[in-house]
Design brief:
alpha+beta, Ribosomal Protein L24e, Chain: T, two-stranded antiparallel ribbon, 4 strands, 30% strand
Length: 81
């Protein structure tokens, strides 16, 4: 599975982790960890073209497709020419 969204270009981020006990006393970071986006494998059907596109997209992109339509969203992202 891809590590970034094809539409929103979301990818992983590095985040710092702290223990709640440490927050109350002194600054002692516990290191960093990687946060991954919520990516889903979806087959998006574009009615205007009559084609189905298999994509790995984030849940935010799924909501954008539901709101704006598949053709407009994929065209703006550059997936459809």
């Amino acid at each position: 599975m891809a590590k970034s969204c094809a539409i929103t270009k979301k990818s992983s981020q590095v985040a710092g982790g702290y223990k709640n006990k440490v927050r109350a006393t002194i600054f002692r970071p516990t290191g960093t960890r990687r946060q991954y986006p919520n990516l889903q494998k979806k087959r998006i059907y574009v009615a205007e073209l009559g084609k189905t596109f298999p994509l790995v997209i984030s849940t935010e992109a799924i909501r954008t497709i539901a709101k704006n339509g598949a053709y407009a969203t994929l065209k703006k992202a550059g997936i459809i020419k």
